[in-house]
Amino acid sequence: MSGTVLTYDPKKFSLAIGGYIMGGFADDDYVTVERDEDAYKKYVGVSGEVARVKNLNRAGHIVLRLMQSSDSNDALSLLAVLDEAADLGAVPVLARDHSGRSLFAAAFCWVKKFPKAVWKKDVALWEWSLDTTSLTVYTGGNTQ
After folding, report:
1. Backbone angles phi and psi of 96, in degrees to 5
2. Is 5 contained in some domain?
3. What is the DSSP string of 61-129?
4. 72 domain-assigned
5. Residue-wise pLDDT tens for the chain (144 aa)?
6. Contact assessment for residue 144 and residue 71, using Cβ atoms and an 8 Å cutoff
7. Fewer beta carbons below 10 Å: N end or C end of the chain?
8. Residues with Cβ < 8 Å from 133, sequence gap 6 or more?
């Protein structure tokens, strides 16, 4: 649209894991959400005919990068500890861009492994990896 300015506001992004609103993100690429596999697999025959097979695997993964000072590290650590001790760490996840239309959700996600912990002169960034069950994906644009 000519004459339109669309805006993305990082303060209007939210990530809720098990009802806990994550915060204390890194300053660059702080959350990545994607499915594990392609939606379709393509087959090309010897004569060039093309067929595709629908992949029913809708599982995905989420990577979030948090400052080491973030309280969200405690929430994710508790989730991982509960999962290891009593299989209680599979919780719902919802990522949403409130300044746009993007939405990602899964009925269950869990901490894949604890992040590599690093201490240094500056604030370290700790990267958490989570796996999900069937991931609902809607990648939309932003609003005015």
Report:
1. -145, 135
2. no
3. EEEEEEETT-THHHHHHHHHHHHHHHS---EEEEEEETTBS-EEEEEEEEEEEPPPP---SS--EEEEE
4. yes
5. 567 888 899 999 999 999 999 999 999 899 999 999 999 999 999 999 999 999 999 999 999 999 999 999 999 999 999 999 999 999 999 999 999 999 999 999 999 999 999 999 999 999 999 999 999 999 999 986
6. no
7. N
8. 59, 106, 107, 108, 109
Structural domain boundaries enclosing 46: 10-138
Q: Which residue has the tokens 């919802």?
A: 94
The total of structural domains in the chain comes to 1
For residues 36-53, one letter each, b for 16 or more C-beta atoms within 10 angstroms of the residue's C-beta and e for the rest, the string is eeeeeeeeeeeeeeeeee
Structure tokens given for 77: 């650590």
Q: Which of 104, 102, 76 is nearest to 91 (CA)?
A: 76
What's the pLDDT score for residue 3?
A: 72
